[in-house]
Amino acid sequence: MRASLAETPSAPSHGPLTRVLTVCIAVILTIGLCSVPAHADYYSGGVGSPRFSVRYTGVNDTYVNRFNTSRGNWNRTTNTNVSITRSTSSSVNRTMTAARYNDSWYGLYTPSGTRNNRRFVIRVNARTLARDSGSNMTAWILSTTVHELGHALSLADNPRTSSLSIMKHNRNRTRTTPYAYDVSEVRRIY
Ligand SMILES: [Zn+2]
């Protein structure tokens, strides 16, 4: 099974790309040329198609509505082929749920299987979101859920761009729809 992607309140860690960029900066300083790896924002744990069904498990009407809105916020993106539908069939093994998890993250995306037969579980943490969202609980739930669905659409955490992105951990969580950059990335990937 692939590793889960957790969205935590803490700062993102710095991975290999940071080191690549550091090398690039050194190159810029010396010869003024830098080649950043293409598709740096691509996440291979997503679904092979932007059209797929999800099933909700163990959530009340409030979370059903939040999940429906989050799907709609992706489905309404322009000039993408995104279509995330809801299914109640037990054979659908891409699931979304929410609970008061005793973990630090706001949301967790856990993929399994292969890209062309992708399964995943999206978990939304009602405990940490209630703790940290102040009067913006609804928006933070939506922001988290849209972010996690972004992983299903092959978007990585913390893209290396100055553009705003729903995939950045340090974003404004009252924004509940994908940004133009996110939409352009989904277009590019699919
Ligand atoms: Zn994430």
The biggest sheet amounts to: 6 strands, mixed
| Total discrete domains | 1
Distance N to C terminus: 24 Å
CATH fold category name: Collagenase (Catalytic Domain)
Low-pLDDT stretches: 11-38
Please state the CA-atom Rg, rounded to the nearest Å: 17 Å
Distinct bound molecules = zinc ion
The CATH homologous superfamily = Collagenase (Catalytic Domain)
Order of helices and strands: EHEHEEEEHHH
Notes on the structure:
By secondary structure, the chain is α/β, with parallel strands linked by helices. It has a single domain, classed as 3-Layer(aba) Sandwich (Collagenase (Catalytic Domain)). It contains 5 helices and 6 strands. Helix 2 (61-75) crosses helix 4. The chain starts with a strand and ends with a helix. Mean pLDDT is 88; it is low at 11-38. Bound molecules: zinc ion.
